[in-house]
Design a protein that fits this description.
heterodimer; A: 165 residues; Ubiquitin-like (UB roll); 2 domains; 5-stranded mixed β-sheet; B: Aldehyde Oxidoreductase, domain 4; Aldehyde Oxidoreductase, domain 4; 3 domains; 7-stranded mixed β-sheet; 28 strands
C-alpha cells in the first residue's frame, strides 16, 4: 500500500492505495470522479487525460502513488462554480462533441496545448491543433468541430488572461 | 422560430458531458457489486476437452467460476440471428450453434469458455488466467475465399463447405445477355476491408438479480435496450420481459456494434442470479477488438456493361461475405437486403444480378457497422463507374450524368423503389463547391512541387429509415421495424417525450425537442426527452440504419397529432369556439381572428384539473403512437475527394473533401453536419488507414490501437458541406436520415482520387503509403535494368 497526499480539484486529501493502483482507477473508483474515462489499454486514445501540476498526463498509465504531493485537476475541476471553462463552452458552441466519451480528455488536452503554446509564444494554428491531438482519438466528430472549438477557446483564454492582467 | 425545425440550436445534452457528469454504464456502481472476467480462447479453432478451475476457485476473493455446461444446464438459450435468408435453391440458412460460453469447441480467438466472478476487476482477471482449459487445437481458416476452398477446415458441422447461404437477386439470364450485347464491359475484383467499429466507450454491463422479486436489472451499452430485453427474454430465456429491466444510460458511440446482444451481457445476467451479487463487466480495448462485431469483409467480382453511348446495360455481381465464427443478430441481412438491393446506385440499370455467398470463418462475428451493406454496394458501383469512365475515355462526372435516374418514383430491378431525389443537382453543387473547374490548375501546381494530385467522385445512395415492417417481414426479418413515442404534457405545460429511439451521440435530446418546439411553440428547455429505459418507455426498436429521424421522430409527430387534437377540443370548449378555428403558436392556444386565447400551460392545467372539459372527455394530456414507415428513405449525395500523393513515399494527403448531401428536411444543421463529419472520417479511415488483419490460421494481429490505425485529427481535413434538399414524401417531416452517409460515400471518393492521381486502377483499401507506393511502382513503365 502507498500513502499519498494529493490535491484533487483544489481539495487536499490523504489516501492509502494499493501500489498498483492507476491514477485513472484512483479517480474513478476511489474518489468516484467518473468524468475521467478509459477508452483503451495502450495509452493511445486520451479519454483519460487529466492535469498533474498543470500538465496533461494520461491517467491510465500513471500510478496513483506517483502523484504523491501533486495537484491533480480533472474535467470536474475546471469550471468556476457554474461558469464553464472557456474550453468547455467552446466545445458546446462548436458542436465539438457527440457521444461525449472522449470529450473530457479532449478538453483537458485542449487546455494544456493552449497553455503550452502561449507560454512558448507559438501560434496554435489548426494544423498545430491537429498535430497536438495525436494522443486523443474521437470516433464521432471527424475532428472538424473539435479543432474549431480548441482554436476558438485559445482566443477566449488569451483574451481572458489579457483582461486579468 | 429560433428553436424550431432548421435552427442551429446548441445541444442541450452537452452540459453533462463537458463537465464530466455523463453517466455511462461503467460509471454505475451497485451495492454489493462483483466483477466478471472472461476466460477466452487463445486459439482460432480448438476442441475443449476440459476446464479445471480449481486454482482460480481457491483464490481469496473469487466468488465463482462458471462454465458453459452450467449455463446450458440452467436453460440459457443459444444466440440467434434474427433475419432468415434462404439460398437460391430454397434451403434455409445454416445457422451454427452459438453458446454464450462455449462448451465443446471454440471457434475464434476470444471465444469465451468460462467466467470468473470476483471481488475486484483485477482479482477477476488474475483468477481468469489461472483457469486451465484443455484445448485440442484444430485447423482454422480466417479468410472467406479460403473457407470456401475444397478441404478447408469446417467451422460448423451443419454448414458443409462453411457455406451459410448461396443467395441471389435479380435476373441472371437477362443480365448475362445484356453484358454479352454490350459495347464495353468493365470488370473488377474488389475487396471491401474488414473493420472494427471502435466506439470510444468499450462495451460494459452491470447486471443485478433481485431474488425477492425474481427480477433482473441490466445496465448496458446498447443502441436498442428494448430489442435487448426482447431477445434476452424470448430467445435466451434469461427472464420473462416483465421481470427484466434493461437500461442503456449514456452510451459512448455505437456505429452498429452496440445493436447486438453479446455473450457477455447474457452471462452477467445469469451470473448475477447464480452468485446473488450484482455483476459488472467492462471490456478493455483489446477485448473490444476480439469480441465487438466487425464490419464489411467482402470479396467481389463484378462486370458492368455499357452501350456505345456510355449507358449502363447490365451489372453482374458475385460476392463472398465473411460472417466470422457465428451468425450475429442481423448478420444475414447485411450482404443481402442492405447490400444487393442498393446495387442500382443512382443509375438507370435495366438488368442487375447479384449472387452472394455467406461463409463461416474462425474470426470474430461480422455484422452491421455504420452503413452496413450500403458502403460495400456504393464502393463497388462507384469504383466501377470511375474505372469505366477511364476505360471509355469519358469524364467521370459525365458518365454518371448520362446514367442518373431523373424520374421518380423509380423502381430498380433489385426491390428498392426510390421515392425522390436530385442526383444531377447534388453533383452540380459538389462540383461547384469543390471548384472542379480549377482542378487542372491545382494539379499542375502540385506537379511543380513533385506531387501527384487526383480528384475522385462518389455518388452514393442508401436505403435508410429502416424499415416498413411488413416489407422486411416478407424478406425474413424476425422483428417489425416501427418506432414508438409518447407525448406527455404536464399540468404546468412542460413536456416529456418518451421515445424508443436511443441517443448515443446523435443529439436526440436537442433535435427531438426542436420538433416539439416547432409544433407547440414551447421553449426547448421545457421539453425533456426520455429514452433508454424499458421501465420508462414501453417499447422501441432503437437507433441504427439512420432511423431515429425518419422513423423515431415520425412517431413523435404522430403522437403530437393526437395531443393537438385533444388540445383543440379543450380549447374550443373553454373558449367557446370551433375546433377548426383553434391555432397553436408562440406558446398560446388561440381562436383565429379573435383575441380569445389560452396560455399553453392553461390548457395542460385544464386537462388535469378536469373541472371544465367537453362532455365525456377523459382527463389528462398524454398520447402515444406507433409509427411504421411505408417505404425506406433514400438519402443520396455526391462526394468529391481531392488528394496529393508523394510519389517517392506513397504518402497521401486529402487536401479537400466536399460533400453535397440530400437528407430531406434538416432539423438541426449543426447536428446533421456533425454526422457527416464523423461518417466521412470513418470512410476516410476505411479508405486509407483501417483494416482488421488476421493471419491465415486466425490469429488477430490488430488487437489494439498500436496495430489498428484509427483516424486521428491530422489524418483528416476540414470538410466542405453542402445540402441539396428534396423532401421525402413518405414521412410527416420529410426526413431521409443522415447518420451513415459519410461512411458510405467517402471510401470510393478517396480511392477514386488516389487512383486518378497515380494513374492506376489497381489499388485496395486501406490505401496505406506502402500500397500506394507499390501501385505507383507497378504502373510505372519498366526501365531496362542494364
Amino acid at each position: 500500500m502507498a500513502d499519498i497526499t494529493v490535491t484533487v480539484n483544489g481539495k487536499a486529501m490523504r489516501r492509502s492505495v494499493p501500489d498498483h493502483t492507476l491514477l485513472s482507477e484512483f479517480l474513478r473508483e476511489t474518489l468516484r470522479l467518473t468524468g475521467t474515462h478509459v477508452g483503451c489499454d495502450t495509452s493511445q486514445c486520451g479519454a483519460c487525460v487529466v492535469h498533474v501540476d498543470g500538465r496533461a498526463v494520461k491517467s491510465c498509465t500513471t500510478l496513483a502513488a506517483s502523484v504523491d504531493g501533486a495537484a491533480v485537476t480533472t474535467i470536474e475541476g475546471i469550471a468556476s462554480g457554474s461558469d464553464l471553462h472557456p474550453m468547455q463552452a467552446a466545445f458546446n458552441d462548436h458542436h465539438g462533441l457527440q457521444c461525449g466519451f472522449c470529450t473530457p480528455g479532449m478538453i483537458m488536452s485542449g487546455i494544456d496545448m493552449v497553455n503550452r503554446y502561449k507560454a512558448e509564444g507559438r501560434a496554435l494554428t489548426p494544423d498545430a491543433i491537429r498535430h497536438e491531438l495525436e494522443g486523443n482519438i474521437c470516433r464521432c466528430t471527424g475532428y472538424h468541430n473539435i479543432v474549431k472549438a480548441i482554436e476558438d477557446a485559445a482566443g477566449r483564454m488569451t483574451s481572458m488572461a489579457t483582461a486579468a492582467e | 422560430m429560433s428553436e424550431g425545425i432548421g435552427a442551429r440550436v446548441k445541444r442541450k445534452e452537452d452540459k453533462r458531458f463537458i463537465t464530466g457528469k455523463g453517466k455511462y454504464t461503467d460509471d454505475i456502481r451497485m451495492e454489493n457489486q462483483a466483477y466478471a472476467a472472461f476466460v477466452r480462447s487463445p486459439h482460432a479453432h480448438a476442441r475443449v476437452n476440459g476446464i479445471d478451475a480449481s486454482d482460480a476457485e481457491g483464490m481469496e476473493g473469487v466468488i465463482a467460476v462458471l462454465t458453459g455446461a452450467e449455463l446450458k444446464a440452467d436453460g440459457i438459450g443459444n444466440l440467434i440471428c434474427g433475419w432468415a435468408i434462404s439460398s437460391k435453391d430454397g434451403s434455409p440458412m445454416n445457422m451454427g450453434p452459438w453458446s454464450a460460453l462455449a462448451t465443446d469447441r471454440v471457434r475464434y480467438v476470444g471465444d469465451a469458455v468460462a467466467v470468473v466472478i470476483a471481488e475486484s476487476p483485477t482479482l477477476a482477471r488474475r483468477a481468469a488466467e489461472k483457469v486451465a482449459v484443455d484445448y485440442e487445437e484444430l485447423p482454422a481458416v480466417a479468410h472467406a475465399d479460403k473457407a470456401l476452398a475444397k478441404g478447408a477446415p469446417q467451422v460448423h458441422d451443419n454448414a458443409p463447405g462453411n457455406l451459410i447461404y448461396d443467395w441471389g437477386i435479380g435476373e441472371e439470364a437477362a443480365t448475362d445477355a445484356a453484358l454479352a450485347a454490350s459495347a464495353h464491359v468493365t470488370e473488377m475484383h474488389i475487396t471491401n476491408n474488414r473493420l472494427s467499429p471502435n466506439p470510444m466507450e468499450p462495451r460494459s454491463a452491470v447486471a443485478t438479480f433481485d431474488e425477492s422479486e425474481d427480477h433482473y436489472t441490466l445496465y448496458t451499452t446498447s443502441q436498442n435496450p428494448h430489442v435487448a430485453r426482447l431477445v434476452l427474454s424470448a430467445f435466451y430465456n434469461v427472464a420473462p420481459e416483465h421481470k427484466l429491466r434493461v437500461i442503456a444510460p449514456d452510451v459512448g458511440g455505437g456505429f452498429g456494434s452496440k445493436i447486438y446482444i453479446y455473450p457477455e451481457e447474457i452471462t452477467c445476467l445469469w451470473a448475477s442470479m447464480k452468485t446473488k451479487r450484482s455483476v459488472k463487466w467492462t471490456a478493455d480495448r483489446s477485448e473490444a477488438f476480439m469480441t465487438d462485431a466487425h464490419g464489411r469483409d467482402h470479396i467481389t467480382t463484378a462486370k458492368m456493361g455499357f452501350d456505345k453511348d456510355g449507358r449502363i446495360t447490365g451489372f453482374k455481381v458475385d460476392t463472398i461475405a465473411n460472417f466470422g465464427a457465428y451468425m450475429s443478430l442481423f448478420s444475414s441481412a447485411v450482404p443481402t437486403y442492405l447490400y444487393a438491393t442498393l446495387l442500382s446506385g443512382q443509375y438507370n440499370i435495366a438488368n442487375i444480378y447479384a449472387n452472394v455467398r455467406a461463409v463461416y470463418t474462425n474470426t470474430v462475428p461480422v455484422d452491421a457497422y455504420r452503413g452496413a451493406g450500403r458502403p460495400e454496394a456504393c464502393y463497388l458501383i462507384e469504383r466501377m463507374m470511375e474505372t469505366a469512365a477511364r476505360e471509355l475515355g469519358l469524364d467521370a462526372a459525365e458518365l454518371r450524368r448520362r446514367n442518373f435516374i431523373t424520374q421518380f418514383p423509380h423502381q430498380t430491378p433489385v426491390i428498392m423503389a426510390y421515392d425522390v431525389g436530385d442526383f444531377g443537382g447534388n453533383l452540380d453543387k459538389a462540383q461547384k463547391a469543390a471548384n472542379v473547374a480549377g482542378f487542372p490548375a491545382r494539379k499542375a501546381e502540385a506537379a511543380r512541387r513533385g506531387k501527384l494530385r487526383g480528384l475522385g467522385y462518389s455518388c452514393y445512395i442508401e436505403a435508410c429509415g429502416i424499415a416498413p415492417s411488413a416489407a422486411v417481414g416478407s424478406l425474413g426479418a424476425g422483428v417489425g421495424l416501427w418506432e414508438s413515442a409518447e407525448v406527455r404534457v404536464n399540468p404546468v405545460g412542460t413536456i416529456e417525450i418518451l421515445t424508443g429511439s436511443h441517443s448515443h451521440g446523435q443529439g436526440h435530446e436537442t433535435t427531438f425537442a426542436q420538433i416539439v418546439a416547432d409544433r407547440f411553440g414551447v421553449p426547448i428547455n421545457n421539453v425533456s426527452i426520455v429514452h433508454g429505459d424499458t421501465d420508462k418507455v414501453q417499447m422501441g426498436m432503437g437507433t441504427y440504419g439512420s432511423r431515429s429521424g425518419a422513423v423515431g421522430m415520425s412517431a413523435i409527430v404522430k403522437a403530437m397529432d393526437k395531443v393537438e387534437a385533444k388540445i383543440r377540443k379543450i380549447a374550443a370548449h373553454q373558449l367557446e369556439a370551433s375546433e377548426d378555428d383553434i391555432v397553436i403558436e408562440g406558446g398560446e392556444v388561440k381562436v383565429a381572428g379573435t383575441d380569445k386565447k389560452m396560455a399553453w400551460h392553461e390548457v395542460g392545467l385544464a386537462a388535469y384539473t378536469a373541472h371544465n372539459l367537453p362532455a365525456g372527455m377523459e382527463p389528462g394530456l398524454k398520447e402515444g403512437a406507433f409509427y411504421d414507415p411505408v417505404n425506406f428513405t433514400f438519402p443520396a449525395g455526391c462526394y468529391i475527394a481531392e488528394v496529393e500523393v508523394d510519389p517517392d513515399t506513397g504518402v497521401t494527403k486529402i487536401v479537400q473533401f466536399t460533400a453535397a448531401d440530400d437528407f430531406g428536411t434538416i432539423i438541426n444543421p449543426n447536428i446533421v453536419e456533425g454526422q457527416v463529419h464523423g461518417g466521412v472520417a470513418q470512410g476516410i479511415g476505411q479508405a486509407m488507414l483501417e483494416s482488421v488483419v488476421y493471419t491465415d490460421d486466425g490469429q488477430l494481429l490488430t488487437g489494439s490501437y498500436m496495430d489498428y490505425a484509427m483516424p486521428r485529427a491530422d489524418d483528416v481535413p476540414f470538410y466542405t458541406i453542402e445540402h441539396n434538399t428534396t423532401v421525402c414524401p413518405n414521412n410527416p417531416l420529410g426526413i431521409k436520415g443522415c447518420g451513415e452517409a459519410g461512411a458510405i460515400g467517402a471510401p470510393p471518393a478517396v480511392i477514386n482520387a488516389i487512383t486518378d492521381a497515380i494513374g492506376s486502377n489497381d489499388l485496395s483499401m486501406p490505401a496505406t503509403p506502402a500500397r500506394v507506393w507499390a501501385a505507383i511502382s507497378a504502373a510505372r513503365p519498366r526501365v531496362a535494368a542494364e
